[in-house]
Specification:
Layout: E1 6-11, E2 14-19, H1 30-45, E3 51-56, H2 67-71, H3 75-80, H4 83-92, E4 98-102, E5 106-107, H5 109-115, E6 119-123, E7 127-129, H6 143-151, H7 153-162, E8 166-167, H8 168-174, E9 179-181, H9 186-199, H10 202-215, H11 220-234, H12 238-248
Parallel strand pairs: 2-3, 3-4, 4-6, 5-7, 6-9
Antiparallel strand pairs: 1-2, 7-8
Length: about 260
């Protein structure tokens, strides 16, 4: 399916999704959100895909939502089709691991999009922040909920309330991202992480992601039961048997997702 605002590129078992509005700093409008949603559904229907990398065209990852477009929405429209929320929900619903390769500023809806990914790495020049309160708004795509779960209440409150961006090294220090690399090494690093993910047993990876994401909204006891249930389901898979054989034979496992 052709897209206007994103680039969908599949390399073997990895899909690259590139936000492609570089002249507008890759801000998220309704068209981009809808195309991203279509792409994520396509990924979930493709059993070959085992990892996704999201990045931005040009020098910016994503600098926010299209405020001009938002101002034209009625309250009813905004409640049903907030582009920031649509985009973040679509990415969060991808079954396989999603890597955010943050090549420049990730602000507002852009940071919300990154937070909906499972692994976040960044170039050295990127900045991270939620400027919404300086516009008389609050984040509308999950920022107030995902950020505290990742960095804790105190630091999240500081970023959300003061609305000033932080540098990549500070984002790494507080846990927003897991790695900072030179800009010219970012794609290579993302590809290497994806390569390692693709080599793992795909059902186990999917269940581990499900256990983490669903468990965050459960009590510890509920989360432990979910983990036990998913672990039990894995016992009957061919991948689990292959994993044990590979361990005993001291070789790399060859997993089929069965």
């Amino acid at each position: 399916m052709p897209h206007k605002t994103i680039i969908y590129r599949k390399e073997e078992q990895t899909v690259w999704l590139t936000l492609n509005r570089p002249l507008a700093s890759n801000i998220i409008n309704l068209e981009l959100a809808n195309e991203l949603g279509d792409a994520c559904r396509e990924i979930n229907q493709d059993e070959e895909v085992r990892a996704v990398i999201i990045t931005g065209a040009g020098q910016t990852f994503c600098s926010g939502a299209d405020l001009d477009e938002l101002s034209s929405f009625s309250l009813d429209q905004l409640s049903r089709m907030n582009p920031a929320s649509l985009a973040s929900r679509a990415v969060a619903a991808v079954n396989c691991p999603v890597i955010a390769a943050i090549n420049g500023d990730a602000l507002g809806a852009g940071l919300e999009l990154a937070l909906s990914c499972d692994i976040r790495i960044s170039s050295e020049n990127a900045r991270f922040g939620f400027p919404e309160t300086s516009y008389g708004l609050i984040p509308g795509g999950g920022g107030t909920q995902r950020l505290p779960r990742i960095v804790g209440r105190g630091k999240a409150s500081e970023m959300l309330l003061i609305a000033e961006p932080i540098a990549a090294r500070e984002a790494y220090r507080i846990g927003v991202i897991s790695k900072v690399v030179p800009g010219d090494k970012l794609a290579e690093e993302a590809k290497e992480i994806a390569k390692r993910l693709v080599s793992r047993a795909p059902i186990a990876v999917r269940y581990a992601k499900e256990a983490v994401n669903k468990g965050m909204d459960m009590t510890l006891e509920q989360g432990l039961r979910l983990e036990a249930d998913l672990s039990f389901l894995l016992q009957s898979t061919e991948d689990r048997a292959e994993g044990i054989r590979a361990f005993l034979e001291k070789r790399t496992g060859h997993f089929k997702g069965e």
